[in-house]
Amino acid sequence: MPNINEYLDQNKGRFEEEFFDLLRIASISADPTYHDDVARAARWVAGQFERLGFPAEIIPTGGHPLVYAESPRVPGAPTALVYGHYDVQPVVPLELWTTPPFEPAVRDGNVFARGASDDKGQMLTHVKSAEAWLAVEGQLPINLKYLIEGEEECGGQGVADFVEKHRDRLACDCVVVSDSSQFGPDRPAITCGLRGIVYAELLLTGPNRDLHSGSFGGAVANPANALARMLAALIDDRGRVQVPGFYDDVVALTDKQREQFASLPFDEAAYLAGIGASALVGEEGFTTLERLWARPTYDVCGMWSGYQGEGAKTVLPSAAGAKLSFRLVPNQDPAKIIEGLRCKLAEVCPPGIRMDLTVHHGGRGVLVSEDSPYTQAAARAVEQAFGAPPVYTREGGSIPVVVLFSELLGVDVLLLGWGQSDDNAHSPNEKFSLADFHRGIKASAQLWEELASCPTKGS
Ligand code: BES
Ligand code: ZN
Questions:
Q1: Pocket flag, ligand 1, residue 361 (CB < 6 Å)
Q2: C-alpha distances out from residue 459 to 16, 154, 167, 338, 446, Å
Q3: Domains assigned to the chain
Q4: What distance in Å separates the CA atoms of residue 331 and residue 141, rounded to the nearest whole number?
Q5: 144 near 48, Cβ under 8 Å?
Q6: 458 falls in which pLDDT band (50, 70, 90)?
Q7: Could you tell which of 31, 180, 366, 398 is best to mutate to test the pocket of ligand 1, judged by most ligand atoms within 8 Å of the CB?
Q8: Separation of first and last alpha carbons in the chain
């Protein structure tokens, strides 16, 4: 594809400018303050498709809108459904950003901005690759459908409902998602598994107001003390989650899978150094990659109670709260985990404390094929663009809709991450390598060609 690659090289600067325009939109889906910005990002994405001549629709949901577009029909050719998300995570703590999160800044070949890697830059690679085909060849070698959502970072209920209702419209031969990472610099990867999630919020209330801790301490149930005990009761010293039935449905790793994980060049010392931590801890009996990719976990993502200001204030708080995430693996069922969690928390909730548990979202883990013709096509495309064959990995993060693509549409999902695990997704100073952005576009353009010779169901 020399002509297409030439077009991509000639248009690098403009692609970056357009990418930065999208990065300037503060599309934080979890925070209602940014509602209009999220809508603006949806219109921006739709505008990209309109410019390619793909009729685009902005589809309202109960939450933020979906953007849907289709390329002009190429009869007889396979169809790929591209999924991505234009929403981003919140940006707090703002003071830890070197440059403002919605003012893209280039340093050392990386663009720094919220959403640079997760997922605006990665998603855009599949739009720019289509542009190159149209500009150079006048048409694409396959049919493309695009489904870009605006609430992946806060649970993705709208897209889940849409996929369920519109299976016919979304019919395809494979799904393509770039919303994950390479295994390391110059080590591209095809991701073959994602974890699921249950995200819940626990609120504990005790006395009807904050009390003097001397006058009342020792006589009254303290929600902060109760919270600490309850959260601690959810995990034992060996790193085993203490929710009843938690491990019942977990699919155990096979010896072959363990060997495959172990064969990957994972450098624990570099991993530790990268995050500035002093030790790696987790469930006993498993390696770090096994714990990250194939074992379920429990983490407190936030907790609050009592006096948070300067100096000392002797107060017995009236309430305490925590946000909890459980990462799940195939075949754990989020509904069963939530039920077990409620039982466990009720069992360990001390007298004098009222407990409320709200579930924000849940989704199942998924494994995808490592050896279908579509995966092989993707491997060829990745190798050509990145100059190295991909390794086969899994990721610990979640993209809840992927399991629905796999089950409801009955097709392979190609998880082709162009990011890096140190891109600071969800953290301050999120970045994306511009070299990876351009290689991702090349790989995507090559993928359309490679998929053209794959079997089609005639959708
Ligand atoms: N891009 C991530 C998913 C991901 C994370 C893939 C890490 C590979 C490695 C995605 O945007 C994300 O962060 N998803 C959320 C989903 C949740 C809010 C339902 C996640 O994993 O926390
Ligand atoms: Zn993402």
A1: yes
A2: 34, 31, 11, 38, 22
A3: 2-194+365-451 (3.40.630.10), 196-250+296-363 (3.30.70.360)
A4: 37
A5: no
A6: low
A7: 398
A8: 26
